[in-house]
C-alpha cells in the first residue's frame, strides 16, 4: 500500500467516482463505518458523497494524512482494494 501522501493521492485519483466503504476512528474509541462514492480529490483532502439512506449528512472529507496514520481505512467495493491497511 502507498506509504507517502503523494502515492495515496494518486491511488485515490484513479478511483474517482467509485463506491467505497470507510472505517474511521470516531470520538471516545468508537469506530464509524459508512459507504458512499469518492467524489473529489483536492491538494490536501478527499471528499466522499455518502449514501443518504444510511447517513444524516451528505458528504464527509478526510485528509490523506488520516489514511497514512491509519485513522481512516478505505475499501473500494467494486474491486475489493483496501487503502490504508
From TrEMBL:
NCBIfam families registered for this protein in UniProt: BflmStimVeg (NF046033)
Protein's name according to its UniProt entry: Veg family protein
Organism taxonomic ancestry: Bacteria, Bacillati, Bacillota, Bacilli, Bacillales
Pfam family, one: VEG
Residue ranges crossing the lipid bilayer per the database entry: none
Example GO BP: regulation of DNA-templated transcription
Amino acid at each position: 500500500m502507498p506509504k507517502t501522501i503523494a502515492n495515496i493521492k494518486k491511488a485515490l485519483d484513479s478511483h474517482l467516482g467509485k463506491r467505497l466503504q470507510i472505517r474511521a476512528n470516531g470520538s471516545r474509541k468508537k469506530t464509524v463505518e459508512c459507504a458512499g462514492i469518492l467524489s473529489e480529490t483536492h491538494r490536501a483532502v478527499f471528499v466522499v458523497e455518502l449514501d443518504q439512506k444510511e447517513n444524516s449528512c451528505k458528504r464527509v472529507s478526510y485528509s490523506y494524512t488520516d489514511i497514512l496514520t491509519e485513522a481512516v481505512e478505505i475499501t473500494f467495493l467494486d474491486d475489493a482494494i483496501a487503502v490504508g491497511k
